[in-house]
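Technical note accompanying the year-one report. For the benefit of new consortium partners, we illustrate the data format agreed upon in the data management plan: each record pairs a sequence with a structure-token string. No post-processing was applied to the example shown here.
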Amino acid sequence: MQIKNRQQFLTIVTLTAVGLLALDSIVRPPLMKLWNDRAKEIRTLKNQVNDGNREKSQKDFFQKRWAEIQGASLPNDMTAAEQQLYNGLNGWLLFSYANLGGVAPTWRPVNDPAYKILECRVDVSGSIDQLARFLYSLETDPMALKVQSIEMTTKDANGTVINMGVQVSALVLTSTDIKK
């Protein structure tokens, strides 16, 4: 088709340019947003796959660590759990040469049936070195314990004998199966 009239040709070119400009301003932004959203989703999915592969490669480590945690937790029997905690306490006292003032174990109720918490208030006295050794032996023990709080007061005017109250929580797993 041959265009003979120059004005007709310029009108068609102008209308085509305006149409393309309008099409560009109407169609391009939603397509760019869609493109960017998909690129972001692809990045997120790639990161999730990489994280999953990393965790999958560390499966043996996690299973070994879980077995260690299970082994370090107290037995599911209340008296046996308290006895194991008392045995640990005796070992810490022997290591530190600190003097036992009192022990007050209590079972804390939890909403999760997979575990129980045995809380124990331990009062010991001795020199600062003895108390430091007591805390060191408590913290380095493989038993699943957490020190909740420590209170220290002096017994004499010189501060050579110190009373220390330690609030400890012990973990008791009621279920030993590994959740996969």
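Partners are asked to follow this layout when depositing records. Residues 6-57 form one domain.
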